[in-house]
């Protein structure tokens, strides 16, 4: 018979003596939190100053570009930290607020749920309990448990999907399928465009889809036109290599300037035609499309990731 070990659960102070140590560890291991909340983060900063206060961690949602605040607290939640997250959120106009503590009181769960019910749909509050776990003599691991999440993160009901309308419902369904095949634990959105981080700030990978075509690409959106042009030139120097990896002629790799850009943003992209309207596809056809979109993006990421990191 296979021996089954018992999982030991311990206070987080068993691993980190101070909140600052935990915050530093979290920045270095942010992927664990990203997978838990379904948001990809970039531009991560520690001890970010907001007026006369300092937020533990501030980041940006790679997909929506909204600001994200992460506030860490050892022991049980208290009013002081509730006040902090509200102060930081208002000071930064944050869209996602993550409060991490060892234990949430019922009053503070209720407060976060109330905020999720009574703030805009683009704003979400997470309450997350943290603990250390280990099996036998194994190293400690950090475990997160979501006890409060924004309403819009919950499983979307059939009636809620119907309220979106057929076009938005299709987008939501396609992104759900694509992200599952790509292995990204991110929240699908009812829009024609979806981006995720490349590891280079302000330069995400990008999917777009229309009725009779889709595209994959790299969106270069640095703050200055000079930076964007430099990264474009760096990628262009390796365009032959990228085309071979993608198995497409060079002329099919397009450079575009996104409509309405005020900072000289650039887009490297490849278009793929659809033989049937996206909005008339069967279940089986959507499955095949999602597989293709994920597969082509995996090839692009593999072909460009190292180049982007050299260009940063």
TrEMBL record:
DUF4268 domain location: 171-307
Protein species of origin: Thermococcus kodakarensis (strain ATCC BAA-918 / JCM 12380 / KOD1) (Pyrococcus kodakaraensis (strain KOD1))
InterPro entries for this protein: DUF4268, tRNA_endonuc-like_dom_sf
Annotated GO MF terms: nucleic acid binding
Name listed for the protein in its UniProt record: DUF4268 domain-containing protein
